[in-house]
Amino acid sequence: MEMESINPRTGFCQQTKTFHSLRPRTPFPPPHQPLSITHFVLSLLQSSTVPTTTTTTYLNIPSTGQSLTYSQAIDHIHSLSSSLKNHYSLNSKDVAFILCPPSLHVPVLYLSLMHLGVTISPANPLSSDSELTHQIQLCKPKIAFATSQTAHKLPSLPLGTILIDSPEFTSLLTQPKPQASQPRVEVSQSDVAAILYSSGTTGRVKGVGLTHRNLIALISGFHHNREEPDPNQPEQPPVSLFILPLFHVFGFFMSINAFSRGETLVLMERFDFVQMLKYVEKYRVTYMPVSPPLIVALVKSDLTEKYDLSSLRSLGCGGAPLGKEVADKFKEKFPHVEIAQGYGLTETGGGATRTIGPEETSQLASVGRLSENMEAKIVDPETGEGLGPGQRGELWLRGPTSNGVSAGYVGDEKATAESLLPDGWLKTGDLCYFDSDGFLYIVDRLKELIKYKAFQVPPAELEKLLQSNHEIADAAVIPYPDEEAGQIPMAYVVRKPGSNITEAEIMDSIAKQVAPYKKIRRVAFISAIPKSPAGKILRRDLVNHALSGASSKL
Fold it and tell me: Per the UniProt record, which residue ranges are transmembrane (predicted)?
């Protein structure tokens, strides 16, 4: 295709109705070259400009006082892969199920298994028995890795379960280095590296297959388009604080990305707001990946004044839309901290769009521009027609690999066929638009739009307004069945301590800010909004709660 037909401001091509990334194209290794994500990441680390790689700390776990340097981590990866190969004869394409809370061993375990071409499948240690049974049926693992606390949840597998907090595991990690004569395992880039579980906020959890190639492409993009350090700022070693679970796509990807760049990671085993502030001060944290509810908490909490947070440079925000009002208040309170928003799905391995640098991060309502080598379409959900800048429709994405952005849903051909088209396009199910500068805006989930009479009401828009009210700690909006209108917007509200705000005051305040059809017509007060580990509102739980309530007249 001729580049002239792509608009340099929006990235939109009128002929194909496709938006193209405005970022410089990223070079990748040739697709036929055998290469695992682990081998690729180790080669980036070795060529990286971080001079102290061997002595630099890779992982810190403050709650246990343990830490791991890069040279130890690299030794562990090599020892563990060769021990697992020799003792358990694990082969390329075998699946390993991982049910572990965050620990020093988890990232090393991920990289060792993927080095052997073994597909890893990390799951939430707090999953219910029925969720785990479903996940194990989908991924069909040969072996599992767990801790003495989580192992009882697992069925018996062909090669059993290894406890990562046992002396046996420690000996696998620390066995003498393998002889150089041992041939390296050849891993094809098109093999599935990881099966990650999508959050299942709208239906049953699905297992998303991501290939080594998908992950190599994403890491390359981050590597080649990193932000240059600000010459006016003192050079600080990059330290990330992780409050995200490592089994979720955001935490999984960012832990591998940090490894490729020689950065230090501080892992929190359990989220605690005050502890988080203490760690930022103690470890001079420069970066934290967060979800919007945490930004709301940082804005509203007075505790932030008690700690020295001056080392913080940026927050990577994803998982759900961030309200502009909240972002503005954050900038007022923390002028030296950038909020780099991004948008991605488990299916895209994380970042499909993101903001880079001060000019882009000032576009507070947007989730950024298309990442390197990504393409997008905005499609009218009724007619299937491609739309241009400024027009709302369903976002479709296509990624920098031969098979689209992911390898589809494991064990679910129907879901794969519905979402992943033969030519590589992924239908995201999100209602979005691009502006005249190529910035993407998320309106809401198509499935979550409330159908009031003939109108569509996006819950996220009402939630942002509710969250900007100083008497409200948190809020969620759901559809509530109504005979006359079909559905009406209903709000679940968590009051701030000491607030007595009433249903009438809430409905009245929103009514003044929105079109009549978007008004909230019902309010319930609740102690906490149910959310997934990534900070997404579990609307199904709230819908079930509303419908089972004695107050519901159905």
Answer: none
